[in-house]
Amino acid sequence: MADEDYKRRRDIMTMNLAIHGPIEVPFEVPNGRGVKHIDKDQKKAFLASLDDAGLASKQGCYIFAIRASRGYRPWYVGKATRSLRQECMQPGKLNHYNAALSKILKGTPVMFFVAPDGRKNKVSESVCEEMETFLIQSAYFMNPDIRNIQKKKVPEWKIRGVLRSGRGKPTVVEQAFRTMLGL
After folding, report:
1. 129 lies in the same domain as 175
2. What's the predicted TM-score (pTM) here?
3. pLDDT (tens digit, 0 to 9) for every residue of the chain, 183 residues total?
4. Which end of the chain is less crowded, N or C, counting CB atoms within 10 A of the terminal residue's CB?
5. Are 130 and 60 members of one domain?
6. Cα-based torsion angle of the residue sequence 138, 141, 146, 149 in order, rounded to the nearest 10 degrees
7. Do residue 111 and residue 170 come from a single domain?
């Protein structure tokens, strides 16, 4: 009985979010050489692809990253408390994206989104805030050159094999601990 009550409370308290993407961000290379750049035309094309993916009116968080041969490198994390369409391609954000593109020679810019799945669009502001902080800290751990200025302070502790522990295969005990906590 207590187990059923816990599951019911957990389902009520939990906001179910899903990862969407990666969606490629169009860019241009002026004169066919030089630094990659996202301008108004590429912004418009990207927002159209956001509409096509059914994400434009959703709230949530987004991560601008560069995909290269070794995976993805996060460069900017943001939150959208109005809608992803209204917030992820604002002029200030484009400045961050273009600054990141100027630092790399190879790779394709992409965006990941964490937003409600299905027909739901809304995410509470407190959930967005908490999620953005977590994502910035996680992205900063992977890329200390991340463009975000605030919320980068990563807690000064880690649990080897469980949380912020870097590379390496967790031991049997560490894996059991992760499983126990659902990490």
Report:
1. no
2. 0.82
3. 566 655 555 554 577 899 999 999 999 988 777 789 999 999 999 999 999 999 999 999 999 999 998 899 999 999 999 999 999 999 999 999 999 999 988 899 999 999 998 889 999 999 999 999 999 998 998 899 999 988 877 777 888 888 777 778 889 998 898 888 887
4. N
5. yes
6. 70
7. no
Sign of CA dihedral 82, 88, 91, 96: positive
* 123 and 56 housed in the same domain: yes
Do 56 and 89 belong to one domain?
yes
Q: What is the pLDDT of residue 78?
A: 97
Residues 167 and 142 in one domain: no
Q: What range defines the domain where residue 171 resides?
A: 156-183
Judge if 173 and 123 occupy the same domain: no
CB count, 10 Å around CB of 75?
Answer: 23
Strands 60-68, 71-80: pairing kind: antiparallel
Residues 6+ apart with CB under 8 A from 140: 146, 148, 152, 154
Show the tokens assigned to 49.
Answer: 């692809």
Distances (CA, A) of 96 to 82, 90, 132: 20, 10, 16
* Count: domains in the chain: 2
